[in-house]
Amino acid sequence: MPETEPGRPDYEAIERIKQDATPRLLAVPGVTAVALGAKVVAGRPTDTPSIKVFVRDKRPAAKVPPDELIPADIDGVPTDVETGGDLTPLAAPPTGVLNATRLALDSKTYRPVIGGGTLTTAGSSASGTLGCLLWDAANPHVGYALTNQHVAHPPDIRTMEKDRTEIGQPDGDRLSKNCCNDIIGVWAGGDKNADRDEAVVRLSPGMKWKAEIAGIGRVAGIHELTREEGNSKSYQVRKRGAVTRLTGGFITGFTATTNEIQNMIIITPNPHPNAGPRDTTFFAYDGDSGSVLVNDANEVVGLLHHKDGGGRGWATPITHVLARLAEHEKLDLQVATSPPGVPIQVHTVPGGPTVAVPHEVAQQVAADPAMRSTFQGSGDRAPLGRPWFTDVPPPADALAHVRADLDGSSAGRLLGALWATHRTELTRLVTSDRRVMIVWHRGGGAALVQLLLRMLTHTDRTLPETLNGEPLMTCLDRLHSRLAQYASPALRTDLDRARAVLPDLAGLSYQGIVDALADVSQRNADQQGADQ
């Protein structure tokens, strides 16, 4: 064993020996990868550095041809043969492989945007993980989401357009099932080759984000593994992926090389206490691609991109990732951090047109700490083109309760049918048609949606009696007229039918709205009975 002094390994010499030996080792049939790491004896890591050789199948030495036998040491450095190394990109989860509950993608909307959630390119059926947030070195409010290139550009997306291809969290939809715009930004660059597999998403103007990872907490910085740490038997890391959520493991190899990828970190999962003899414990699984490795100091160590059949994760050092983004994309980015001891700062990406928020709504925002922390704007102004409330959407049971309440009256059923039938066209009109968009925002449409969604979980909230000093129903009539002006014939008809049964909503709570819809329905039914 090369040593700098008695008992102290010469890590530089060991790394040179490994690099020199890698091409001929990878040429041996069945060898999948070569790395450095602590030698494992009887299933336990030791303090001895070794050249780790990964093979598809381990065979007794007597059954291996002499020219394929891995020597016990190479130039004095012990070897360690392990099974694995055939890498599989961590793409969208397959069906029917393991328990469906364990493999379910995290469908939660994280606003402000943080790391650890599901990320999906618009138009794709495949998803991965948003690892962590980066910021522009020149302006820390300009945020970027870090993931893998094979997540941002999955097989079902034919081409990527820089600064145009939209990417969402959790889904790639402009309108999700929870009434929120999922799109958080656009693809700003990245690539997948033997040297890299990373991509960045430039967050949209007005988007709020935090230097935090779900289940892990604030991010403290980055850490480059030392040779001593890479050869250690106890360097612990964690990751938060969209499928397996929070898992832990320890570094068992670094500077790993295969015939296709180089300079990787290998992570072995910590043992699971309930694992049986036939169970495989995974550090990461399909759908976790793009998550980041975080050490015990909450520093980002690497970017995860593959798994192997032995349950290990394979990642690229974060310093290498940032260097490639600077070299190829000319992006001077750093891992966004949050200092300890103070509340995690909510950053807002600057830029983008804004419109004034009705002062009645601005007052409610100012008085409500929860709304202040999540409102997409300053309180008196909001980004144009973002009509939906961007707080974490109401729970599914709350939305189901609303549907049930609407189904309880004929007027409520009309309103529910209007949204269910025309939500795509309605969303297009208020987000893309500037003639409608301006009136929608200035007339308080976006503000009303924000307040109504808030009222689902805060039943003491009420709608204002006025917007910009005008009666609430006058504003709604103006919005109705503008929507109807540019709507399709089918939508125009249903808008008119819904307006005909809409009661005066001024000052009403959620339950007051439900009761008012029931009263209108009863009056209409009584009138129809009298007419007959």
From TrEMBL:
InterPro entries: Peptidase_S1_PA (IPR009003). This is Serine protease. It comes from Streptomyces umbrinus.
